[in-house]
Amino acid sequence: MKSIKVTILGKQYPLKVEDSEEEAMKRIAQYVDEKFQQYKKELNKQPDTTIMTLAALSIAEELFEERKRNRELNQQGDEVLKDVNKTLEEFIEDIQS
Question: In total, how many domains does the chain have?
């Protein structure tokens, strides 16, 4: 495990991560900070807790939309594989006849 520090809304947070996860975690923290900064700029009179909550909801929405897209792509891929398998089975039957 490796100790790193990330900065979100100007505050440093210490994290322990696997060596292989360090760069990914830094990118994630940077993304979260950028979202928080965006909301802070748009809602400059709101407390940080409100800004963080709204930004977290936005990030969660992105995650859910991406999961939905992945499920749809997987379903499409499954249909393509079924079609390919059916075509191959028909081809094999034709060859054996």
Answer: 1
